[in-house]
Model the fold of this input.
Amino acid sequence: MRVDYSPDSLGTAAFYRLLTAVVVPRPIAWVSTLTADGTTANLAPHSFFSVASTDPPVVQFTSVGRKDTLRNVEATREFVVNLAPEPLFEQINLTATDFPSGEGEFDAVGIAREPSLKVKAPRVAASPVALECRLHSTLGIGNSTLVLGEVIHAVVDEEALVDGHPDIHRLRPLARLGRNEWGLLGEIRDLPRVPYRDWPRS
Ligand SMILES: Cc1cc2nc3c(=O)[nH]c(=O)nc-3n(C[C@H](O)[C@H](O)[C@H](O)COP(=O)(O)O)c2cc1C
Done:
């Protein structure tokens, strides 16, 4: 037996809760931006996040509704995706508080920042990874806006590298699940892909 759901009968809010409970786990882009006048540094988690293209390198996140992050990205055409690491769990959640526009989460929550190399928006100093992005494009979809950003610079804490490669156990990324659930890193398994030339033939 399977249970059927349709967006029409369930309604928008309930279907949203269903989608976020089944599209899991989602990586969290901790997006930092600056207001157009450069006075307020904004920071907010976005779990509708992924890689959109590899050449050019483009990442994407979705703003559900119009929020400070989206307004700042539209005004400044840049942003930084900071990795959301487990040690900063509580602070990350606090940056999802609906502070008024003039109140930046870096200051309100007390999160240390550092300058970025290629964009004006600051990075989160304690995050092991920052992807500095220039706005590629936006796409309005219903109540949401897909934001695509070309990664023009990436920085990784050397403490998070093993043999020159970012190591998952050192990055300790958080994931978003359904409801108010968060995922921590589980068991990691390594399994190389099987090339077709090695596919067993009878
Ligand atoms: C883990 C987590 C993930 C979130 N993901 C998203 C998301 O993908 N898109 C979105 O619009 N809001 C998301 N939110 C809610 C925003 O972070 C929240 O609305 C925040 O206040 C927006 O801040 P801003 O107005 O400063 O941009 C998420 C919240 C949490 C806690």
